[in-house]
Amino acid sequence: MIPVIAIDGPSASGKGTVAERVARVLGFHYLDSGALYRVTALAARRAGLAPDAAGPLGELAAQLPVRFEGGDIYLSEQVVTDDIRTEDCSREASLVAAVPEVRAGLLVRQRAFRQAPGLVADGRDMGSVVFPDAALKVFLTASAAVRAERRYNQLMNKGIPANMQVLLRDIEARDARDASRAVAPLQQGNALLLDTTHLTIEQAVDQVLSWYAAARPPAS
Ligand code: DC
Fold first, then answer.
1. pLDDT tens, position by position, 16-29
2. CATH number of domain containing 79
C-alpha cells in the first residue's frame, strides 16, 4: 500500500508549505488539492458558469484540463499559478468547493496522485474523504489573526496589494463556510492536531516527520 500523509486545515494555515517540505524530505509526491478547487473556480468564471450551476460545474471539474509541472499550474496550455491565488479566486474556490458535484468530479483525479514511493496531500478532506486510509492524518491550524498576517506577507511578497482587515474578515468568512458546508466539511476528525500559531515552519515540519516516523510500520 502506497503511504499517504494527509494534512488538512483552514485557509492560510501554512499547511501547503509544511506539506511540500515534508514531501521533499521524504522524496514523496505532493498534492495541493486546494489548487484543483481554485483552478475549477477560475475555469468556471472563464466559462461564465455561476458558482451554483451544480451540473455543469461537476462536468467541468471532472474534465478539467489542469497540469502541475515544474512548480507551475496549467489550465489547458496557460500558466495560472498566480491567477488562482488572488482573493477573488479564493472566495470563488470556497463557493465551488461546496458543490457536491464538483467534489465528486475531483475525487478520482486526486486519488491518482497516490504514486510510489508515497504522497503528502494537503486540503480540507484528505484524511476524511479522499484518503481515509492515510498512514498519518494531521489537522494543521493557527489563529485567524496569524493566518491573516501570513497571507498578507505571502501576497506582499508576490507584489499583490492586500489589506489586513479585509484579509482577516475573508479568512473568517471562508472558515465558517468551509466548516459548515454539508459535504466534506473542514473538521479535525481523528487527525492529530498541530497548532502552528507559535511554531516556525521548521518546527511544524519536524513534528509531522516525527509523527510519521512513529506511525509507519518498521521496514522489513
Ligand atoms: O487550501 P486552499 O486555500 O488553496 O483551498 C481553496 C478552497 O478550496 C478553500 O475554500 C477550501 C476548498 N478546498 C476544499 O474544499 N477541499 C480541499 N480538499 C481543498 C480545498
1. 999 999 999 999 99
2. 3.40.50.300
Tell whether ligand 1 has an atom less than 6 A from the beta carbon of residue 125: yes
Boundaries of domain holding 8: 4-212
Number of domains in the chain: 1
In a domain, 217, yes or no: no
Q: Is the beta carbon of 174 within 6 A of some atom in ligand 1? A: yes
DSSP codes, 90-121 = HHHHHHHTT-HHHHHHHHHHHHTT--TT-EEE
Task: Classify residue 39: in a domain, yes or no.
Answer: yes
On the question of pLDDT at 138 being above 60, the answer is yes
Beta bridge partners of 120: 5, 30
For residue 37 and ligand 1, the question of a CB distance below 6 A is answered with yes
